[in-house]
Amino acid sequence: MKTVRMKIELNNPNAKSVGRIDSERVDATTEVAIAQQQAEDDANAMLDAAKFARRVRRRLGFSQIEFAERIDVSLDTIRNWEQGKRCPTGAAKALLKVLDKAPEAALEALR
After folding, report:
1. Is residue 20 part of a domain?
2. How many domains does the chain have?
């Protein structure tokens, strides 16, 4: 890998700006556009979490009912995760990660 060193002259107003930001576009962005983009990003994150929860359950070969019983959560919780209405957080998120990486050990511990 090649390393490039640059010296930035902060006191020189004529110095070239460093980075890839389009200042005009940033300045033209409204609060409404920012809020809309944030809502789209949040929706995409929920869908990613839904896909992950569904993928873990399917890899284990469980129905939603069986999966809910095995990890001791309600069926509605599983459905909400997989439909993207809710996102697993905290311990539930950690459990899904463990079930994804080491399913046998996780399922044995949950007995």
Report:
1. no
2. 1
